[in-house]
Specification:
By secondary structure, this protein is of the alpha+beta class. The chain has four helices and four strands, in the order αβαβαβαβ. The mean pLDDT is 95.
Length: 105
């Protein structure tokens, strides 16, 4: 996490706190994409996998719920919600995130 700015980490932590305060209990949060790979630039979004049993399993609906809080923290955060049971190597996106993502929580 040394190469990730403290501003990005703080934004993620603020979002996770807001979610917790609104009964979305976080099991894991992993930064992935260009920030995790160290290839981010000024146009990069902040890809964040959020794992919670509070999610419905409908990624579109769950993402919209999270986006309500993202706008208060940092609109560059691009959340990808997963239920715990879906966040495994059986899911191709989850497998990729697990292989190089940076665990925040």
């Amino acid at each position: 996490m040394d190469k990730i700015s403290s501003e990005v980490i703080e934004s993620i932590k603020k979002l996770l706190l807001l979610l917790e305060e609104n009964d979305i209990h976080i099991k894991q949060a992993l930064l992935f994409g260009s920030y995790a790979k160290g290839t981010n630039d000024s146009d990069s979004d902040i890809d964040l996998a959020i794992v919670s049993d509070s999610f419905s399993g409908n990624r579109f609906v769950d993402k919209e719920i999270i986006r309500k809080y993202v706008v208060y923290v940092n609109s560059d955060i691009s959340p990808i919600p997963f239920r715990t049971e879906d966040f495994s190597e059986k899911n191709l996106l989850a497998k990729e995130i697990l292989s190089y993502g940076i665990r925040i929580v």
